[in-house]
Amino acid sequence: MCDMIDSQSAEKISKMKKLRRTLSESFGRIALKKEDSNFDEICVTKMSTRNCQGMDSVIKPLDTIPEDKKVRVQRTQSSFDPFEKPANQVKRVHSENNACINFKTSSAGKESPKVRRHSSPSSPTSPKFGKADSYEKLEKLGEGSYATVYKGKSKVNGKLVALKVIRLQEEEGTPFTAIREASLLKGLKHANIVLLHDIIHTKETLTLVFEYVHTDLCQYMDKHPGGLHPENVKLFLFQLLRGLSYIHQRYILHRDLKPQNLLISDTGELKLADFGLARAKSVPSHTYSNEVVTLWYRPPDVLLGSTEYSTCLDMWGVGCIFVEMIQGVAAFPGMKDIQDQLERIFLVLGTPNEDTWPGVHSLPHFKPERFTQYSPKNLRQAWNKLSCVNHAEDLASKLLQCFPKNRLSAQAALSHEYFSDLPPRLWELTDMSSIFTVPNVRLQPETGESMRVFGKNNSYGKGVSNSKH
């Protein structure tokens, strides 16, 4: 009897142990399932909210961003510079984020309404920047010894461009002026400096893609002979000095200032172009070539063989261009050679000596016996229209100084009384802001002509033929 009771008790105990083990395993599976579910949720949340900018830190999900900030996030993702890399090349991580989000929602067979999809990458066959077939040539603007300039159109965004096509030769390689121009312009962003959009390199050519500007100052003056409207001269000169001040502060010399290298848009915006001869000036002073600047705009120190110069080199050219805009003729139109060019300068400014120009006798090409001895004149005696514009003669005289160190800097020239009647806001503009964004600043119609000018044969740089000089 006792044995039967013990046997039944042992059987009950065994059943209870088995039931407890079964329940324990079941609860264990439920707990494990819950942990797995939580882990999946955490993983997907981390993956879906991980850096749209390429970092590995966890960012708040889009759902938790306040509504006013959501708009800002979406605008940042969709906006891009049309001349930088296309958005699909920069933001590829978005498609990876979508894959992470879909992992979470695929079991339900539909996407969460809170998840915003990003646009898919563009077709591989669509035009891209940096490719030769991304631009359509419309017409030839000019041709020179090693470069041809075309008016073109971008197939990427439909904008007009200027295509400066530089021919490459196996023996000579890429012209150093093209390399210099491209490397300098890539770092210059200013309203009064021509914008380099793109660079295309093939085996046969190097193409620099610039913003398209309708004409240049040389053509503008040819279209309006006899001198420009005084107010337009002031606005053109202000923009020229503004662009020069920007590059001079970055220790860059243009070294080839002339009207052909100053582009003029149809709204009157002036832009420095052709940086083929430009140089980044080292500190301390470096020795440069004296074969720079077109003869008519070349300063006397360089004509006399000086190879040590600074930003004052460009400022002589500014003075020559200033006089030419007012008077309607070139300031010093040398017709023969360097000797003739110097004679024309000394005729107005006086033949230099050690008193007026310390160190002039040490310059390689200065031989006192070779030059006629002239006394300096008032500039209005040479260019009578300077007397018709307030403070114009004084500014011109401070730019056209034979002794380089006496020339006014671009920054100082902007503060000259000649500009005193312009709106003060012009001096507060950011680098990329046009002067024509200031109210009441606009070009005046030239005598008998509309102020809109549409020209051809813009030089856009070395290697393209010019009409004169």
What's the quick description here?
It is built from 13 helices and 10 strands.
Explained architecture:
This protein folds into 3 domains: 23-126, no CATH class; 132-211, Phosphorylase Kinase, domain 1 (2-Layer Sandwich), CATH 3.30.200.20; 216-437, Orthogonal Bundle (Transferase(Phosphotransferase), domain 1), CATH 1.10.510.10. The chain has 13 helices and 10 strands. The longest helix has 47 residues, at 2-48. 34% of the residues lie in helices and 11% in strands. The chain is elongated and about 140 Å long. The strands form 3 sheets. The chain has a 5-stranded antiparallel beta sheet, with helices on one face. Strands 6-8-9 form a 3-stranded antiparallel beta sheet. The chain has helices at 2-48, 67-78, 87-90, 93-105, 176-185, 217-223, 230-248, 300-303, 312-327, 338-349, 379-382, 392-399, 410-414, and strands at residues 135-143, 147-154, 160-167, 196-201, 205-211, 215-216, 252-253, 262-264, 270-272, 279-280.
